[in-house]
Amino acid sequence: MNEVWKKPPVSFEAYQNMVGKEIGVSSWHLVDQNRINVYADVIEDHQFIHVDPERASKETAFGTTIAHGFLTMSLMSIMSYEVMPVIEGTAMGVNYGFDKLRFISPVRAGSRVRGRFRLTEATLRKPRELQSRTHVTVEIEGEDKPALVADWIGLIYFA
Q1: pLDDT, the chain, mean
Q2: 31 phi/psi in degrees, rounded to 5
Q3: CA distance 37 to 51
Q4: Contacts for 143-146: CB closer than 8 Å, 24+ residues apart
Q5: What count of Cα atoms within 13 Å lies in the side-chain half-sphere of residue 99?
Q6: For 107-141, how does the pLDDT look when each residue is reduced to its tens digit (9 = 90+)?
Q7: Where would you tag: which of 59, 87, 90, 159 has the fewest CB atoms within 10 A of its CB?
Q8: What one-character-per-residue DSSP string does the chain give?
Q9: Alpha carbon 74 to chain centroid, angstroms
Q10: Does pTM surpass 0.85?
Q11: What does DSSP say about strands 29-31 and 129-140: parallel, antiparallel, or unpaired?
Q12: For residue range 67-113, what is the model confidence (pLDDT) as tens digits?
C-alpha cells in the first residue's frame, strides 16, 4: 500500500488553503545502475549512455551512465505518496498529465533524488472532481541544478 493512504486525510478546505504553499519534500531515492538497467529493460531503451558504464565514462561528458529522464520523472509518483495529503472522501486520484516538464540536469548512476512539492491549484471541475496542479522540483543530492521541474496535473474523485 502506498504511504499516502496511511496518513490521516485532510479536509477539502484545508487542501484548498495549501494552494500557493510548499507541501513538503520527499525522502531521498537512490538511482543506481540496477534501477537504470531494469527501467531500460521495461522500456526497451538500452542506449549506452544508460546501460554501459565503461563506454559512458569514455564517450560522454557525464563520466558515467545517466538515468533516463522518464525514469526520474516516474519516481515523482513514490515521492508524491510521501508528501501529498489525501483529501477526506477521496475515492481515487489519477494522473492527468503535465503542462510543463523540463529535464534540467542528468541524474548520474549512484545519485539520490528527492521531490519538492508546491500546490498551485485546487479547482472543482465537477461536484465530485477536483483538478489539482502541483509544481514539482526533483533535486539531485549535492547538485546545484535540479534533475527536472514539472507542473503536474491530477484529478481527484470523491465518493
Answers
A1: 96
A2: -110, 85
A3: 6
A4: 143/105, 143/111, 145/104, 145/105, 146/104, 146/105
A5: 12
A6: 999 999 999 999 999 999 999 999 999 999 999 99
A7: 159
A8: --GGGGSPPB-HHHHHTTTTSEEEE---EEE-HHHHHHHHHHHT---HHHH-HHHHHHHSTTSS-B--HHHHHHTHHHHHHHHPPPBTTEEEEEEEEEEEEEE-S--BTTEEEEEEEEEEEEEEEETTEEEEEEEEEEEETT-SS-SEEEEEEEEEEE-
A9: 6
A10: yes
A11: unpaired
A12: 999 999 999 999 999 999 999 999 999 999 999 999 999 999 999 99
pLDDT greater than 70 at residue 55: yes
Residue type for position 109: A
What pLDDT is recorded for position 7?
Answer: 79
Amino acid at 66: I
How far CA 137 is from CA of 16, 25, 100, 148, in Å, comes to: 21, 9, 12, 6
